[in-house]
Amino acid sequence: MIYKDASKPVQERVEDLLGKMTLKEKVAQLYCAVTIGGAKTINSLKENHKHGIGTLSFLNSSLSGDNKNDMKTLRDLQKFFVEETRLGIPALVHNEGIAGAQIPEATTFPQSINVASTWEPELAQKIGEVVKKQLMAYGIRAVHSPLFDLGRDPRWGRIGETYGEDPYLVAQMGMSYVKGVQGDNQVMAAAKHFVGYGNAEGGRNGGEQQIGERKLLDTYSFPFEAAIHEANIMGIMNSYGILNDQAVSTSKWLLTNILRDKLGFNGLVVADYGSVTHANARYRVAENKKDTAILALKAGMDVEQPSNTCYQYLVEAVESGEIEETYIDRSVRRVLETKFKLGLFENPYEIGDFYEEINKTEYEELSKEIAEKSIVMVKNEKNILPLKKNLKIAVIGPSSDNKTNFFGGYSSVGTASTTSRDFDRSEEDNYIKSAYTASITEYKDGLKEFGIVFDDQPSPQQKEMIIAMIKRNAAKSDKLYKSAEEFVGRYYPNCKSVKEVLEEEFGKENILHANGCDIKKAIDNGIEEAKTVVEAADIVIAVLGGRESMRDPEATAGENKDNINIDLEKPQREMMEEIFKLNKPVVSVIIDGRPLSTPLISKKSQAVLYSWLPAQSGAQAIVNILTGKCNPSGKLPVTVLKDRGQIPMYNSRLPFFVEINDWAEYIDSDKNTPLYPFGYGLSYTQFEYSDLNLNTNVASDGILKVCFNIKNVGEFKGDEITQVYIRDCVSSTARPVKQLVGFAKVGLDTNETKEVIFEVDMRQLAFHDLNMEQVVEPGKMEIFIGASSQDIRLQGVFDIIGEKIIVERKVFSSKVTIK
């Protein structure tokens, strides 16, 4: 058969197989199923998916923690589809991967906001390469990563999963991860969430978004477009929510007109969990599940996930003439093409040795390196850091002797206690209430087997039955561990707390410890205990912040865990107010996925570090920075605010006043600027910029060459992240006050000088004009080069000359050479 012949072209194999498929077999390729593990899952899938399946969910929420058993389950499931269905089409099995493969024992990496803080796209690519190898060795060939959302609202619980606020930085980091994880079509990455997901009103996860089409194309779509054309992304996942009054999951305008026709994507679109059902159950743009399926498929949604709640009605819809079979064929072709490109028909099972992969020490070292390079030092008054020797140190704070807080919500640790339904909960931070809502809408059909049948709303008696079932299921567990803490101890035994590493470094006798408070709760006598150890110490290390998780009661962020408070939680602020009164030098370390506004901490501490979510080697990385074993080099990928009332405030804003650095005109003038600007970060050394040289005239289709020198004039070897911004002086539409067009990390010994050369194609500056044509306009441009978006060291001007040109596609990346 042609479709089983690997020597034949992919399209020929696709058409051959498609021609052999029944309608039911075709529609089955548009389904997904969630695995739970063991014989029950296998038997259920055999019964319910005898015609095959498109994708298979194998997230950490599905796993028991017994990797050998879970790998056997996955192999048995795949063996069923390959050997026991009529056509033998393998399932495309997916997992998560922004912080490492979402599998117990797989290498965990710092969260995406950490990776962005390194400003080293090469590190993102290295993460992707590790994730690829470990997933393939497990038998998984697709990953729902990375996020290309812009993180501009610190209330949003998922901002730590993003690569920051700037479309250029997000594109560079995301594309590099995609190149690493996809390799040579070995794993399918899914860029998400298309589109504007992080821009929801009020920072409410999956909420309403209003984005003008020009902003949508030039800003929010930019990273996706870059991934399509520079990284050959194979998959796209839609966003939750409503964009410009359209449910994203059923929007032809977004999924076809914009994504495919305008941006040029020709791969597979997979649904975020439950997002297809939202169109009917939440947003009410469809009357029933069959109508929802028709709308979504016609719009361009290829595969419904995590189940076939709506798409199960597509066979009936075709047979009744409500939708043409050509729409089914269109999406099935994309599914089959993806599977053929991945080589699934030839190699549907594990490729590599999972245990060999997870035991490679270089992967653990890579995780530590990223954690070290991602730590951003925003204050170091009187050079209190690096720490001197022979100190007695008070270590306080809720994350001072805690390990789980180092891990992101989508890491294997962060999802240790989740279920598949947690990925599709409502935004309300109340598990029972949100699970109940999901049960009577998206999962209503599943209640029938328990004798619970209703039209619109359950009866009071039925409601009691459903809630009782939710509570019972929440208490059930087939896992080898009972908590995230136990999970870390079992699968990441080398992970240590900051207290433990400091004891190793300075000796236990010199480390005095008291938590003082929990993340969100006061501890009886906790502040007094903290004061006692502080009074006996020379210096204080306060390890503060939050917890990113879908489930943890202490969680302050995570999916469906949006937080109106963008500062530390009240018990931590109250504790620190008392500690500062003791007049001991304080070094504050913030562990959090969100860019917390910390005005009190920033004002009163002698030093402040944003460590984000540094993963399994996070404590060692933090102590290496504190002691000077590593020179901090991280810079902020987001703007850190003083107050939530400033939201939104980000660097590439449109002009507000005449002066380029004017942000706002609030009555309280202290709130007119951010706490820390985008691109900011300190080092233990200092850098001097000089000798700017650039073209004065550049053709509208030409390349600007920018040269300058950087010298390390301090006492430590260090890395400087230099940033290049351009401003259009006069344009047909308002343009950003500073557009990031390039950056580079420059390593310098003391007294060493290096030349940095950027080449910026003018098509990077293309935007949609008043006629919605993508153009490069001639005119005067200003260029800014600096250590942050506000710390500008060199600046100049040049002119774009010639005629206005219309460009079909932007150039997405500048080139840099360091001599």
From TrEMBL:
Q: Which family does it belong to?
A: Belongs to the glycosyl hydrolase 3 family.
Keyword flag Hydrolase: yes
Q: Which InterPro entries match?
A: Cellulose_deg_GH3, Fn3-like, GH, Glyco_hydro_3_C, Glyco_hydro_3_C_sf, Glyco_hydro_3_N, Glyco_hydro_3_N_sf, Ig-like_fold
SUPFAM superfamilies from the xrefs? (Trans)glycosidases, Beta-D-glucan exohydrolase, C-terminal domain
Database matches in Pfam families: Fn3-like, Glyco_hydro_3, Glyco_hydro_3_C
Please report the name of this protein according to its UniProt entry.
Fibronectin type III-like domain-containing protein
Q: Name one GO molecular function term.
A: beta-glucosidase activity
Boundaries of each Fibronectin type III-like domain copy? 720-789
Q: Which Gene3D superfamilies match?
A: Glycoside hydrolase family 3 C-terminal domain, Glycoside hydrolase, family 3, N-terminal domain, Immunoglobulins
